[in-house]
Each structure stands twice: as C-alpha cells, then as structure tokens.
C-alpha cells in the first residue's frame, strides 16, 4: 500500500510538470533569479589577520597559533599535564583501594578460626 501511494504521488508530480510545463519553467526561473540576486550580499574577508586562530570557549578553532597565544597554549598544556599525572595517581590509589576492599570482603566471608575449630571438635 505504501509503495502504491509513493508511485501515485510520483505520477501526480510528473503529470503536473508535463501538463503545466510553462508554470514550472517560470517558477524555476524566478527561483534562480532570486538566488542570483543574493550573490552581491556575499562578503569575502581576505584580511590575513582575520585568518589567524581564534579562541572559542577556551578551545582553539584552528591549528594556527599566533605568537601572542603561545603563552596561553603553554599554560593550558602544562595545566593538562599536571591534571593528567594527578588522574594517574588517583587511578593507582583507586586500584589499591579496590584490592584492599576485596581482601576485606574475603576476610569477612571466610569462616573464622574459632568457627572452623568448633566444626572439627564434635
């Protein structure tokens, strides 16, 4: 049923374009002229200074870095490196803590010595 509707719609559009070809041609010419009229509104900025890097939300938009931005980039890089090492330390501490918690669970779930002695005694 869905295919029949699509074919029917295609046939209607094709039939309309064939019957009213002059109207379709006029609409296409008006559309093309309308778009052509917008061409003068296009502005091209060829100033080399505006082609250099821009900062947006503390992130670089392009890979080009102006001399004035190098200090800021170095500071951000150092900041990242220090946080990266701190995150690595936290990860190591987390793994040690996880091992310790597993050992505590093992000790709590393992039968105690006094219980094992009572089971053997009877």
Description:
By secondary structure, the chain is mainly alpha-helical. The protein has a domain at 1-39. Helix content is 68%, strand content 3%. It has four helices and two strands, in the order ααββαα. It has helices at residues 2-19, 21-37, 70-109, 113-120; strands at 55-56, 59-60. The protein has a two-stranded antiparallel sheet with strand order 1-2. A hairpin with a 2-residue loop joins strand 1 (55-56) and strand 2 (59-60). The chain is elongated, with a radius of gyration of 37 Å. It starts with a helix and ends with a helix. The model has no long low-confidence stretch (mean pLDDT 75).
Low-confidence region ranges: none
Largest sheet: 2 strands, antiparallel
SS element count, helices? 4
Work out the strand percent. Answer: under 5%
Average residue pLDDT: 75
Give the termini separation. Answer: 82 Å
Helix amount, in percent?
A: 55-70%
Following the backbone from N to C, one meets helices and strands in this order, namely: HHEEHH
């Amino acid at each position: 049923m869905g295919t029949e509707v699509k074919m029917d719609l295609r046939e209607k559009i094709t039939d309309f374009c064939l019957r009213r070809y002059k109207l379709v041609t006029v609409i296409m010419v008006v559309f093309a002229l309308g778009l052509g009229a917008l061409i003068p509104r296009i502005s091209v900025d060829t100033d080399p200074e505006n082609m250099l890097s821009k900062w947006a939300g503390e992130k670089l938009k392009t890979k080009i870095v102006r001399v004035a931005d190098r200090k800021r980039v170095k500071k951000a890089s150092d900041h990242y490196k220090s946080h990266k090492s701190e995150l690595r330390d936290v990860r190591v501490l987390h793994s040690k803590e996880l091992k310790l918690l597993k050992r505590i669970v093992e000790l709590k779930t393992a039968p105690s010595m006094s219980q094992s002695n009572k089971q053997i005694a009877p």
